[in-house]
Design a protein that fits this description.
With 265 residues, the protein is an all-alpha fold. The chain is 56% helix and 2% strand.
């Protein structure tokens, strides 16, 4: 039987349906215990950079990270009490003052962020990584299949017009966020429970509240609670783009100083 455009259109529809199944919101698994911490909330709201920003805020509150020169951050003490994986990865990556954009490229920080994403996926707040990437690959395959059909067949006008349907569906699904509806509901409820305060929060009791405020409100909360650290450390907007430092995966801290353990999550 000779190939016909309808075969390629049907194949594209099958691929599109498979992608739609993969993009279905996940359900919380066995690891979905307790409310997500500020770093997870920041990851859901603003992505990887927002999560690292909250980690830096937590380390700054501990007194082990401070601002450096030209919109950079640097270590300012021993992180012997740091236990949180992301905070530990950030602290041990600061061999010298660097910008947050550089910090995001450090392999150990990227691994810690991947672990944080996996935790959010286990809680049903993000679509699982493998399903997400598989779905995106299938969505790319939809227009490729249609174009291949147009190249090797001489379909009727009706068949050619019908081929636009799966392509339009693939475009629509491409803009489905990795964040699930459960995550959007969680963020909305947290913003209602933790509105941006009118004045800076002070005192040791306010430490977790400051982190959650930054996680939910971003730059506005940074300018309210930690204006000098935020400005001098290049945490606002897109931050510093200094590229004068490549991370050394074998060195645990500046000058080889040992640093272990992490902070309140």
């Amino acid at each position: 039987m000779p190939l016909d455009m309808w075969w390629f259109t049907g194949a594209a529809c099958v691929v599109l349906a498979a992608a739609a199944v993969l993009l279905r919101s996940g359900t919380p698994g066995a690891d979905a215990t307790g409310a997500p911490g500020p770093q997870s909330v920041a990851l859901l709201r603003g992505g990887r950079r927002a999560a690292v920003t909250v980690a830096l805020v937590a380390l700054h509150q501990r007194g082990v990270v401070t601002s450096g020169r030209r919109g950079t951050v640097r270590i300012d003490g021993w992180g012997t009490a740091v236990r949180d994986p992301l905070q530990l990865a950030v602290h041990t990556s600061l061999r010298r003052a660097v910008g947050i954009q550089v910090l995001l490229t450090v392999p150990r920080v990227q691994r810690a962020l991947d672990g944080l994403r996996d935790q959010c996926a286990a809680q049903g707040l993000l679509r699982p990584r493998r399903r997400w990437h598989a779905a995106r690959a299938l969505l790319v395959a939809v227009p490729v299949t249609v174009v291949a059909g147009l190249m090797v067949t001489t379909g009727s006008p009706a068949a050619t017009a019908a081929a636009a349907v799966p392509v339009a569906g693939a475009v629509a699904l491409w803009f489905v966020p990795r964040q699930t509806p459960a995550a959007r509901h969680l963020l909305a409820s947290l913003r209602e429970a933790h509105p941006l305060p009118d004045r800076p929060l002070r005192g040791s009791a306010s430490v977790p509240r400051v982190q959650m405020s930054v996680a939910l409100h971003g730059d506005r909360a940074l300018l309210l609670h930690l204006p000098h650290f935020a400005r001098d450390g290049g945490l606002l907007g897109r931050g510093s783009r200094e590229r004068g430092f490549m991370a050394d995966e074998t060195s645990p801290g500046r000058g080889g100083a040992p640093s272990c353990g992490g902070g309140p999550g």
